[in-house]
Amino acid sequence: MANKTQKELVPKPKSRFLRIKCLNCGAEQIVFGCATIEVKCFVCEKQLVQSTGGKARILTKISEVLS
């Protein structure tokens, strides 16, 4: 049995990919949860994700969290 004080051999990732949906046109995109650039909708050019230096700020609806 592994002790809780021991480090995990393979740590779980702290970020995930997200399927987001544009509130203007309804188009869906897959983005990284720690995106380093601003992501715009490929259909209507509305900004969907804002970079913060760490976890990205999601400015729209998250449809699904992918693992």
From TrEMBL:
UniProtKB keywords: Metal-binding, Ribonucleoprotein, Ribosomal protein, Zinc, Zinc-finger
Residues in C4-type zinc fingers: 22-44
Residues that, per the record, bind Zn(2+): C22, C25, C41, C44
Keyword match Ribosomal protein: yes
Matching InterPro entries: Ribosomal_eS27, Ribosomal_eS27_Zn-bd_dom_sf, Ribosomal_zn-bd
Cofactor note: Binds 1 zinc ion per subunit.
Necessary cofactors: Zn(2+)
Top-rank lineage group of the source organism: Archaea
An annotated GO cellular component: ribosome
Complex and partners: Part of the 30S ribosomal subunit.
Assigned protein family: Belongs to the eukaryotic ribosomal protein eS27 family.
Descriptive protein name: Small ribosomal subunit protein eS27
Source species of the chain: Candidatus Lokiarchaeum ossiferum
